[in-house]
Structures are given as structure tokens and as C-alpha cells.
What we know:
The chain is an alpha/beta fold and 394 residues long. It has twelve helices and 14 strands. The protein has helices at residues 7-17, 34-45, 58-72, 87-99, 116-122, 144-150, 173-185, 256-270, 275-285, 289-313, 338-349, 378-393; strands at residues 21-22, 82-85, 105-110, 126-131, 133-134, 140-141, 155-161, 189-193, 232-237, 250-253, 325-329, 351-352, 354-355, 369-373. The chain has a seven-stranded mixed sheet with strand order 2-10-9-8-7-3-4, sandwiched between helices. It has a three-stranded antiparallel sheet with strand order 11-14-13. The protein has a two-stranded parallel sheet with strand order 1-12. The protein binds pyridoxal-5'-phosphate (PLP). Residues 26, 87-89, 113, 161, 165, 193, 195, 237, 239, 245, 250 line the site of pyridoxal-5'-phosphate.
Amino acid sequence: MRLTESVIREMSREAAKYNAVNLGQGFPDFAAPYAVKEKAIEAIAADHNQYAITWGVKSFRDAIAEKTKRFLGLDVDPESEITVTCGSTEGMIAGMLACIDEGEEVVLFEPFYENYAPDVILSDAKPVHVPLYQTAAGDWYFERDELRAAFNERTKAIIICTPNNPTGKVFTLDEMEFIADLCKEFDALVFTDEIYEHIIYRGRRDDGQMTMATNNPKHVCMAQIDGMQERTIVVNSLSKTYSVTGWRVGYCIAPPEITNAIRKVHDFLTVGAANPLQHAGAFALSLPDKYYNALQKEYQLKRDFIVPVLQDAGFRCGAPEGAYYVMTDISGFGFENDIEFTKYMIREIGVAVVPGSSFYHDKSLGSQKVRFCFCKKDETLQAAAERLEKLKKG
Length: 394
Ligand SMILES: Cc1ncc(COP(=O)(O)O)c(C=O)c1O
């Protein structure tokens, strides 16, 4: 068995045991939108309680197609190009099992969301890691030569996550076009995880400090790039945009032939996602722009609160461009590694984080990093800030 237990989920249990403020696992501790919850209650009361169509409730697939047109300008056919899955987690693994054969290679940027490498391994393929480096200001980038060198005739796909967990990087159009050209040249697919598409920040200087000046990153979906929709599997979910990580409702958008394969894998993996929650999902996806603008503003305030707190406490980090994480450098604290530091944080400081090594295949690369998440109530972030004061005295 080449899989180990999820460090993120393990740290959540450890945080509960020591009553630490949990800035580890990325789930909101505030309420999901009332209107969305109400729709779920109504759907249960209306007896949408049996198996839905395997690949998803029609009204939900229609809403996904409409939202994709509205935000990405893409036409997708709900009958042949959408599969509703149990979260984007299932979307990613179902997509890979459907498309990737034994011995093929999948390129992924490192650090990466910890499920990706196991997904590749479960698909009997080989992960090929390409590092993301950080500038002194905290921005993340890749070396184009290194990415090119990772592609060869065995390359079946690349995984992208933008806005990115754990780095907060939002890939630029230029970077995406470079990746697209490589995929065309090597006839590779793109799996793009877009669950943070609506969580993007404004106002950031090139040195990583926050300011009112504008350096506004923009979300680009790989399927929007010329000639890429036909080789892109977009993976998305309700989890982060509507603060319902426990609902386990997500979806894949892919060309018909790939969708056909994904639907078969999905059927045998899970049969289907929760029926009433898909009905509520149809409503959620049709929320007006003001919902998404408010979400953006809320998270912007949280980011602008937590980043200076972390910098002040001795963590080296820049301000993320998107998603709701801050990947920090802990070398100033003099700990042997990230696991020791995380235990110290949970037990002595009372704040749970995720050890950086869980985002790297070569654990040494993350051994002086930890990740904070800030998708938490203001009082939770305030409580964490007060506890982090202790680090300055230590
Ligand atoms: C990049 C990324 N993808 C997928 C997931 C899991 O998403 P879901 O709840 O839709 O399965 C997470 C959760 O933190 C994530 O950060």
C-alpha cells in the first residue's frame, strides 16, 4: 500500500483533542447561506430522497451549464458534458480513472493539494512533480524549462489548481497559455481544479504587501483557452463557493467522449451524489452576482486581517492572490521540522495548522513550512491572533 493517512484530517482530530483553534483543514466554521440550506430542506420535504440519475439531477446540470456560460463564457451540454460527483474529490479521481492507463504519467505542480498524488497512484499512473518556487515577496512561479522537461510521450495529463491550494497562486493567462501549448504538443489532457474560482483578492503590491494599489489577479479556466476545451476536464464543487464542504456535491465538465467514461467510473464508485442537495445546488448556482461579490469581500477582509498577524508573529509569507490559505516559512522559529512545529503549535500555542510536508512528495521540501487557512469567523481568527502572540515571547 503506497497511500498514507491524510495529514490534514489527522491534524483536525489532533486540534479537537487539544482544543486548539483550527486553522488547519480548509472548512468554514460559519453558517452556510440560509437560502441555500432552505432549498435543501424543501427538497427533502418534497421527497427528492431516492437515487438521482447517476450523472446528476437535470435541473442541477442545467444550472451548471448556465453558470459556466455566465462566468466562463463556455457552452457546455448538460446532457453529454457534465457529471455530478460526490465533491470535486470524487470528480478528480473519477476523471483520472476514466482517462489514465497504467504506466502513463501525470504532471503536477508541487506543493500540491494532498489528494492529487494518491489520485494518480490509484490510477496506476506515475506522478511527475514540477516545483513551484517562491520569490522573496512570496509570489509563486514555475520554471518553464522544468515544466517542458516533465513532458514526454508517456505524459497523459497535467493537474492544475487555480486559485491554488496551498500557495494561493492564481495562474496568469500567459502561464496557462504556455501550459496549453505543451498539452497540445504532447497530446495531453488537463485536469483543472477550480473550486476556489470565486475566491480571488485585490490590491497587492509586487513585494507581497497589501495595499490599495491594484494588482488584481483574474481567474482563467484552461477550457477558455483556444483549442483546450476539447482536452480539459474541469473539476468543481459547491464546497468552497457556498460553504458546504460537508454536502459532498461537485461536478466534472468534459467533452462527451470523456464524460461518457467518467459517468461509468462514477456510477461504479458512488452511484450518485446526494439527490436533495443537488436540487439545492441548482438554486445556489443561480445566485446573483451580488452573492459572489459579497463572498469575495468577506474573504478579502479575512486575508487582510490574518496576513499581517502571521508576519508579525514571525512567519515569512506573502499575501495569497486567491483561495483561503497562507503557506508560510517557519525557519525563523528554529524547529527541526514542520511536524514538530505543528505539534508545538497545537499543544503549546493552541492553534492548529497543516505541516508543509503534506503538500510535497519530497517531504524535506516542506519541512520548514506550515499552511494556515482563514475561512473562519472573525472571532476565530481573532482568537488565533491572540494565541499567536505567545510565539513572540517564546
Ligand atoms: C484544491 C482542492 N481540491 C479539492 C478539495 C476537496 O473538495 P470537495 O469538498 O469538493 O471534495 C479541496 C478541499 O480543501 C481543495 O483544497
